[in-house]
Amino acid sequence: MKLIVAFLLCLSFSVAVAQNRKPAAKSAAKPAAATKSQGQLIYEQNCLTCHQANGSGVPNLNPPLRGTDWVLGDKTRLINVLLKGLQGQEIEGDMYDNAMPAHDFLNDTQIADVLTYIRSNFGNKAEAVSADEVKALRAMK
C-alpha cells in the first residue's frame, strides 16, 4: 500500500511539473532546400553525379564545369549540349569517355535555370541563360 501511495505521489508530481513547463520555442530556421535556387536543385538532381558537387568533373570521364570555355563561352554551344547531348568531343584539350546524354526532357526554364547556375557558380562568372534563348535553339532542332 505504501508503495502504491508513493507511486501515485511521484506520478502526480511529474504531471504537475510537466504542466508548468513552457513549450519549446519553434525553430525559425528554413529547411536547406528552401534556400537553394531552382538551378541548383536541377543541378543536384541531374548533373551532380557526373560533374560533382563542386563542378570539378571526373578526370577522363566527365569534364569539369568550372573555368572552361564550354561553360563560360558561347551560350548556344552550351545550350545545345543539354538539348542534344555530347560524345567524343575534346574539351579544353582533354578527351572524356562518358557520353553526355541529351537533357531535352527538361523544359526551357529548367535548362535556363541550371545553365545559369553552372555559369555563375564553381568560380564561374558568366551571364545568365534565358528561357527564350533555350526555346529558340530547341525550335531549330
Structure overview:
- It is built from seven helices and two strands.
- It is an all-alpha fold and 141 residues long.
- Helix 2 (38-46) packs across helix 6 (108-119), helix 5 (75-84) crosses helix 7 and helix 6 (108-119) crosses helix 7.
- 48% of the residues lie in helices and 3% in strands.
- It has a two-stranded antiparallel ribbon.
Binned strand content: under 5%
Regions with pLDDT < 50 over 5+ consecutive residues? Answer: 1-19
What best-fitting shape do the alpha-carbon axes yield?
A: globular
Radius of gyration: 27 Å
Topology order in helix (H) and strand (E) letters: HHHHHEEHH
Gap between N and C termini = 88 Å
Number of strands: 2
Largest sheet data: 2 strands, antiparallel
Number of helices: 7
Class from helix and strand fractions: mainly alpha
* Mean pLDDT figure: 84
Helix content: 40-55%
Describe the strand arrangement of the main beta sheet, using strand numbers.
Answer: 1-2
SSE blueprint and pairings:
Elements: H1 2-20, H2 38-46, H3 48-51, H4 69-72, H5 75-84, E1 90-91, E2 94-95, H6 108-119, H7 131-140
Antiparallel strand pairs: 1-2
Helix pairs in contact: 2-6, 5-7, 6-7
